[in-house]
Amino acid sequence: GGTAEILDVKNTFSKCLMAASQLKSLTFARLSLIPSFGMPSSTNALLFPSSSDGSSASSGVFDFYASTFAEFTAQYIDALGATGTLPITRKEWLEEEVNLAQSEWMERKQKREFGVWAGQEQEQTEEDAAANAGPRKVNVMDRPDCLEDVFALVSSACDVYPAGARALWYVGEEQQQVLNNDEDGMEAVAVARSPRLVLAPSRALQTLDLLHPDSDSSLFVYLSFLASLALSDAPGTDGTQNGASVVHRILCGERTINQRAPERHIHFLWSQILGAIRWYAENLSQENEDVSTKNKASAAAADRIRNSAPAESSTSYYYMASGNTSNSSRGMETASSSSTANTERSNDGVQSSSNSSVSNETKELDEVGRHTLMSLLCLMSNVASKCYAAREFILAIQIPAQDDTNDGRSVSDGGIQDGSLEILFSLLTIASLPPDIRGMAFSAIANLLPADENLSNAAASSAKNAALRAWELLELCQFVPIKLLSQYSSFAAGAGTATIPAHDRMALRKQQQQGVGGSGFSNDELPVSAFPASSDYSMIYQFEHIESPLGTF
What we know:
- It contains 21 helices and 6 strands.
- It has helices spanning 2-22, 25-33, 41-47, 53-83, 90-117, 126-133, 147-160, 203-211, 219-229, 243-251, 270-284, 293-307, 367-386, 388-395, 420-428, 435-448, 457-477, 482-485, 489-492, 502-514, 538-550; strands spanning 170-181, 188-200, 350-352, 363-365, 398-400, 417-419.
- The radius of gyration is 29 Å and the shape is globular.
- The N and C termini lie far apart (66 Å).
């Protein structure tokens, strides 16, 4: 009887853990409970710098609620990993529901056909009519919280309270040893020092590490969990043992998550992360005969970034072009080819916005592609923001370029390689890139290039070269078209007129005829707060002609 009782207790415990997923409590906590905590203390300090004790009291309440919630979430995730009751992914749930609907339909159909064969008279019912129509449609609203929802809750909890990420790690002790010379000074002797506290992978992380190679839909869940873990502080006084440092050692191959992992276990490393980002950049900006002009411009910009070599002694500064960074004042020259993919894990993230082969067909990210690309960039940003070794390692990565005309093999004659900055900036040139992903890409670049005064001379020189290269790429991409806007400098200075290029003058005249952008100006005079409706003006065009009429920014 004792064994039966133990099994019953374990079964009850597992059902209690699964109840939160079935009742969608995790989604409720993420969307409703966390926002009810209020604002973090740092946000309150920015919004109310001279507030009284009321603001500090509300900050204390937030810290208490957020820390308690983070601790509870960490214990819940650990229990799911320990009992093996992690829920399935959304893709797996949908496949199960589709198969179930197909089985139910086949069962009803066979039952009806058997009744007809047996000579039974059957009245036509609504169930029979539904059976004739085919399998029932799956109602996505009936979907419980899946694996993605569990770790979306973890990401939300760590975003609002980064200190809570410490609870997602196990804490252990590591024996320290240092090499000292013996009394004669002839031989180095290992001397043990007091153990130090270190972070160790939890069972939930170990489970995800074994799960993601077999399921593409769980890859971004694994990456987003690593991004949350990177926000953790060090367990002891040694700041180099924080979560970002541990995650970096995992992603550069110095440390494994599962000691007993199979020999053929796939480890996701920094090179694969940058390769996946480049795959998205290349496929979203892929240039062919059926791609729109906007996508061709994205492919041309990506190729300009790839083919632009860093200047040996660049004197360029913000949007003041040096000789090797731009060959066209408009920044929209045509390129001939774009690179093929070298990453096999990201094959399902890009879809076409139209099934028909039309000239304005563009490629966009589907739901899995958005989440995967976002988690890749968030992981890089979080780790780089708290670990100098990771920044140095990522900036040093060079991935051989691929040649479309060479059957996908790497380019060997020219020796062209894509660096991390070139890959990230080429992603930013994609016109169809969602704003949240574009913002995360900018954050990743900024966290790769922080100002740090405590660097050695060699490290400071390397960081300076990387920053100069980033300025050159930023200038080359022309996200804010300073060169185009400089032609209106006399108007901005109060002269009231400016020499407008012929093609822009035609665009402004067309706007005047259509009643767009104001009226009552001559051919050589710029209307107030209006620019030509041309995508060459990049962000200015988005503000003036897309977001401003809608009233949303």
